[in-house]
Design brief:
This protein is α/β, with parallel strands linked by helices. The protein has three domains: 4-237, Rossmann fold; 251-329 and 415-501, P-loop containing nucleotide triphosphate hydrolases (Rossmann fold), CATH 3.40.50; 343-413, no CATH class. Helices cover 34% and strands 26% of the residues. The protein has 18 helices and 22 strands. A six-stranded mixed β-sheet has the order 6-7-8-3-9-10, sandwiched between helices. Helix 13 packs across helix 14 (398-410) and helix 14 (398-410) runs parallel beside helix 15. The protein is globular, with a radius of gyration of 24 Å.
């Protein structure tokens, strides 16, 4: 059972980027160690070095005073290291049980898979996590949140000596977070736990010490109980952020109605009616499963619309596919940035220009100079931190990936822009940039639909709040009317009615 993990002067460079610069700190069994820092601070790079995905340029890491140097993830796993990344590493067409026991499938005497034993072992873990699905269900049929829980269970099953969580709760509901934290509390006396999160509430709830990184450098290591949220933020971003929302430069000129949905029906969407005005930021709040994402996907043509109508600039639209929506002036930044928002192995340029390729054709060929000019303009306009527009987007931080998606839609001159959880997995510094970008887009007269599971964002950023519960709209509040209590009451309206019935 490992007691101590030490990083000593770890340095790692990529072309044009010094990702880690002499980082040193320790983590012990019995404590949960938080790793915090802005996107690009080096947190994920450090975990990938520990896991054998990357090789460090200099320095060393030691487990119980013995130097280690894993050359690949298999070596790390066999030595008791498990890292759970933001990017899910599961096989969607296999069952939950097959994913959890991927490297250790039980077999019978003939060497065939013993599905009875496999499913029973997996179901025991699922029940331990208090999750409402069976071991036999295919992973692709689960929600994003449940897929993340499968990833966590896969690592938990190995009972590793060291386990690292990289933004594990980004897709989880409060109930699922409670379940995960109960597991972590139980495990911390058995193993060394590293915990990466941008959510301050979680850091103070579950961790025992905080390690702060900034621009690849170590800033501070402190007991969680001995440091404040303001001190953590100051260490991460190098300045006091103050009240982020009060300091925003907002649009004060909200125009006429430009978009209207009437009696919209789709999977988990029941007769939804709402409107958006030019330059208005309309927040959509609700609990997990409320139907917000499904509503927007139906509007955008990503999912089939079963009924109702949508109008943009007074014209009724017949949107069957996303290309219809794009051609009509609607853009969508999806909830799942990795799987639905970016082409991770393609360059920043390609990710910005992808929806504009037809307009860039010249005699049947793409005008590469015009494409590059478009990308360069987006990078400058949104302050995307990349060495080049030719850099693979998958190698950028989450915040810069998100800004690249914004640049893509800005290039289309949209009339309506739908943002589904645009700050998920993004640090506080980058969040403030994203908020101002959204306000600047509203100033241009673009109607903004903003979905977030973080209530402070909804209350702090939006001009009006629409609340959904179980596929229907249960209420609407102005910025002045909206409070935590009112929004949560509307978000649980159907459930509260059921309890009182």
């Amino acid at each position: 059972m490992s007691e101590l993990l030490e990083f000593k002067n770890i340095t790692k460079s990529f072309p044009g980027v010094l990702a880690l610069d002499g980082v040193s700190f320790t983590a012990r069994r019995g404590e949960v160690t938080a790793l915090v820092g802005e996107n690009g601070a080096g947190k994920s790079t450090l975990l990938k070095i520990l896991n054998g995905d990357y090789q460090h340029d200099s320095g060393q890491y030691l487990i119980d005073h013995q130097e280690k140097n894993f050359t690949n993830p298999r070596e790390a796993i066999s030595s008791g290291i498990s890292v759970i990344y933001q990017e899910r590493q599961i096989i969607p067409y296999l069952s939950v049980a097959e994913n959890i026991f991927m490297e250790d499938i039980p077999a019978d005497r003939l060497g065939l898979v013993n599905f009875g034993e496999l499913n029973a072992k997996a179901q025991k873990i699922i029940d331990e996590f208090k999750l409402p699905f069976k071991a036999t269900v295919r992973v692709r049929d689960l929600s994003v949140a449940f897929q993340q829980m499968v990833e966590i269970m896969k690592a938990y099953r190995r009972r590793p000596a060291i386990i690292a969580f990289d933004e594990p709760t980004a897709s989880l509901s409060d109930t699922e977070i409670d379940s995960l934290f109960e597991i972590i509390k139980r495990l911390k006396n058995e193993m060394i736990i590293l915990y990466v999160s941008h959510r301050m509430k979680e850091i103070f709830r579950i961790t025992d010490q905080v390690v702060i990184l900034k621009d690849g450098r170590f800033v501070r290591q402190e007991a969680t109980a001995a440091i404040t949220e303001d001190e953590i933020i100051r260490g991460m971003v190098g300045r006091d952020l103050g009240d982020i929302f009060h300091s925003l430069s907002r649009n004060e000129r909200i125009g006429d109605v430009i978009f209207r949905a009437e009696n919209l029906r789709a999977d988990n969407v029941k007769d939804v009616n709402f409107e958006v005005r030019a330059g208005e930021i309309v927040g959509f709040a609700g609990l997990v499963g409320a139907g917000r994402t499904e509503t927007m996907r139906a509007i955008f043509g990503a999912d089939r619309r079963e009924g109702g109508s949508i109008r943009l600039m007074g014209k009724e639209l017949n949107i069957r596919f996303p290309e219809d929506a794009i051609g009509s002036g609607i853009g969508l930044c999806p909830e799942d940035r990795k799987d639905q928002g970016i082409f991770s192995i393609r360059a920043v340029r390609d990710n910005i220009s992808v929806v504009m390729l037809r307009s860039l054709l010249r005699r049947g060929f793409i005008d590469r100079k015009a494409e590059s000019d478009m990308a360069e303009q987006g990078v400058r306009q949104l302050n995307i931190r990349t060495p080049s527009i030719h850099k693979r987007i998958g190698e950028l931080s989450g915040g810069n990936q998100q800004k690249t998606i914004f640049a893509r839609w800005i290039a289309t001159n949209p009339k309506l822009l739908i943002l589904d959880e645009p700050t998920k997995g993004i640090d506080v510094g980058s969040k403030s940039e994203i908020y101002q970008i959204i306000c600047d887009l509203a100033k241009q007269g673009i109607g903004i639909i903003f979905i977030s599971s973080e209530l402070p964002e909804i209350l702090g950023l939006c001009d009006r709040v629409v609340v959904m519960c179980q596929g229907r709209i249960t209420g609407e509040l102005t910025r002045e009317e909206a409070t935590d209590h009112k929004v949560l009451t509307l978000a649980m309206a159907d459930m509260l009615e059921g309890q009182s019935a």
